[in-house]
Amino acid sequence: MTQPQHTELLQLAEEAARRAGELLRDGRPADLAVAATKSSPIDVVTEMDIAAEKLITDLISQHRPDDGFLGEEGAATEGTSGICWVIDPLDGTVNYLYGLPTWAVSIAAERDGEAIVGVVAAPMRGETYHAVRGGGAWAVGAWDGERRLTCRPAPPLDQALVSTGFNYVAEVKAHQADVAQRLIPLLRDIRRSGSAAVDLCDVAAGRLDGYYERGLNPWDLAAGDLIAREAGALTGGRPGERPARDLAVAASPGVFEPLQRLLEEFGAWHD
User: Which residues of the sequence carry a binding annotation for Mg(2+) 2 (predicted)?
Assistant: First the structure.
């Protein structure tokens, strides 16, 4: 694709993320309730997830009617243009339900299964992160203008701050807790934000040395993974593989390989 086409996709993703973020931030009802559940009774969807995805897909379709969609809340069309929008309208739904601030809107444009544009808006932080493949990762927030993102210089693993997440299926969560218990003594510490998109952007912004999680879907990863890589982080799954549902890892070079190796040794990807 040409640079003008990349710019068009980026501007559209930014506008859709901004509008959806404003809807979620300003339109959250005081009596917000669970509208549906997914993998388990505690893996929830709210009416606002659904409304935000509709806003995003409607806006993009107005400008690019031939594009496809893959969205967490059900958007699934192939399109004919070769571009597929991979959308998580509200990453961190449980945080949002409880009134916690760590949630985000995640939008990526993919061609041939590869993200070429990614935007993550975190309205309660007042920050938006974006990347175009080959163009670096950037953010806007409380500082003046755009800020280029660069992952942290790699510390020794025992001084690394690493984030993770936990599945909503009890048996999977129990195994993840066992892996984390084995990993914690080997790191500076572990964090758990509740939003994969925010964690990946925090790796990009140098706020974390690494992140890993099992059980993510394409919409959880697509934008944040591109942003992390464009900030200089390494990303992958099991050794030699791309990030996938089995395992996703993102970290500063120097932290990535030893972290990935330990996760493989501890069976972080096992059922």
Answer: 90, 220
Report which of 261, 233, 229 is spatially closest to residue 247, judged by C-alpha positions. 261
| pTM of the model as a whole | 0.94
- Residue 67 annotated in ligand binding: no
pLDDT digits 0-9 by tens, 107-163: 999 999 999 999 999 999 999 999 999 999 999 998 889 999 999 999 999 999 999
| Residue 91 among known ligand-binding residues | yes
3-state SS assignment for residue 261: helix
Q: What pLDDT, on a 0 to 100 scale, did the predictor assign at position 155?
A: 96
What is the per-residue burial (b if ≥16 Cβ within 10 Å, else e) of 189-213? ebeebbbbbbbbbbbbbbbbbbbbb
Instruction: Return d(Cα 74, Cα 50) in angstroms, integer.
Output: 9
Is residue 8 part of an annotated ligand binding site? no
Please report how the helices 218-230 and 196-204 are oriented relative to each other, as an axis angle in degrees rounded to 10: 10
225 is in an annotated binding site: no
Q: How far is CA 56 from each of CA 63, 95, 172, 230, rounded to the nearest angstrom?
A: 11, 21, 32, 24
